[in-house]
Amino acid sequence: MPKRATGTIMTGIGLDRDHSIPLHRQLYEGLREAILTRRLMPGARLPSTRTLAIELGISRYTVMDAFRQLLVEGYLEGKVGAGTHVTRTLPEDVLRPSLPATSVPSYPREQRLPSQRSAAQMVLDWPTMLPRFDEPHHSRAFQVGSPALEAFPGDLWGQLVARYGRQMSAAMRGYLHPAGYMPLRQAIAAYLATARGVHCTAEQVIVVNGSQQGITLTAQVLLNPGEAVWMEDPGYFGAKGALLGAGVRLVPVPIDAEGLDVETGKARCPEARLAFVTPAHQCPLGMTMSLQRRLALLEWAQEAGAWIIEDDYDSEYRYVGRPLAALQGLDTAGRVIYAGTFSKVLFPALRLGYLVVPHDVIDAFIAARLFADMHAALLEQAVVAEFITAGHFARHIRRMRLLYAERQAALIEAAQQLPDWLAVRPAEAGMHVLGWLPAGSDDQAIAQLAAQHGVTTLPLSRCCMEPSAQRALLLGYTAVPIPAIQAGVDRLVTAFSRVQMGH
């Protein structure tokens, strides 16, 4: 039986094949920098040379050359049967220089004034496009956004919960720091640095109860009621609800093949105070924001004194190629608020997410977190921290990536039964595919008809703010076993056979 892949996910290390510097030297420099800046913590286990070569799309010999040099210089240590780890004691010559505490620069504090709005000013205006939660059907074809809950390592999780429950001291049963359990913040910072190319320290990580709360907190801290926010159109309806609940004015900005159309946003509302984007995997259309657009968005934010929320909700699940590193890693002016969640990679009921915020607004975010609900539950935070640092998290992601690729392939194959009604195309990443309907179709009516036949879909029009000629159904596959995928398609065939398409 082949060994299971373990160790830190390292896809955030950038390699340039067109550069004059050899790949093995680029990898060496990237790993060395991650070790010196503590993005790779002492004792952290690295993936095997074979696993890392596959993740980075390079030769195993290239990885072995970089590892060999780092071992010789004392940055790594390896033992037979125990893998390769970051050394716990760095070489003396690298301890002499005065290393900066963080690679993230500081910025003028006068540009970081939090908003003056209070909780009493909040106007809750939840949009009608929010889904119902009375009958969640998490494993029903084709529920969008739900992970494969049956594949989660529940026994292992239960053991960790029981152990931490027994070991909690009296001091740990009191109030926590509002920003969260420090070992978890450290684990998140280390993971983001190596897997997503995020530049941050643990102090910049704020643990929240899901990304929805993170978006709300961001609006409370950085915006005043009535201020304008660029919103991807179509976009994530959950973010729309959170931002509308904060009393801001949403400005729809269209999406094209390169992501958010920055020039259109500037033309429609140059005075906007914030932009909400999903650059790694646009929700719901699925494209990756191009590097040119990312730089243009960052340039606008810096010049306008505006902010960007980067929602990196499911970047772990990419099946073709390698994703661009996070937008936050390109930010040199401290304008990006990075939001992540464990709902998609662990399980939704956990209700844990995180923000990475610029240094200048850390105190403002901590104050907002304090008055929101004090802090997230300690037991869950402690278990997730252990789950990450012990290597279970990286192993689980790799297993789910393979499982989800298989389920997507099964859905694409089964959907060939629907060529005249629904054009389903493969997706390079994410947890759903789009089924495109003929022009003139009513995707909401078709989704209701599918529901009557026991199939859950999300009509694309519910994600749109402006009228659009695009009509499609979002089909989630990650929570659906392969036999249920085929059964779901069979029910769609029955439903579509009763529809007069094109009317």
What order do the strands of the largest sheet run in, or round the barrel if closed?
A: 4-11-10-9-8-5-6-7
- The number of distinct β-strands equals 15
How far from one another are the termini?
56 Å
Major β-sheet annotation = 8 strands, mixed
CATH structural fold name of the largest domain: Aspartate Aminotransferase, domain 2
Radius of gyration: 23 Å
Annotated CATH architecture of the largest domain: 3-Layer(aba) Sandwich
Helix content: 25-40%
Q: Given the C-alpha coordinates, what overall shape results?
A: globular
Structural class: alpha/beta
Query: Class of the largest domain in CATH?
Result: Alpha Beta
Indicate the low-confidence ranges by residue numbers. 92-137
In DSSP terms (H or I, runs of 4 or more residues), the helix count works out at 15
Helix-strand sequence: HEHHEEHHHEHEHEEHEHEEEHHHEEHEEH
Q: How would you sum up this structure, described in words?
A:
With 503 residues, the protein is of the alpha/beta class. The protein contains 15 helices and 15 strands. Helix 10 links the parallel strand 8 and strand 9. Helix 5 crosses helix 12. The longest helix is centred in the C-terminal third of the chain and has 23 residues.
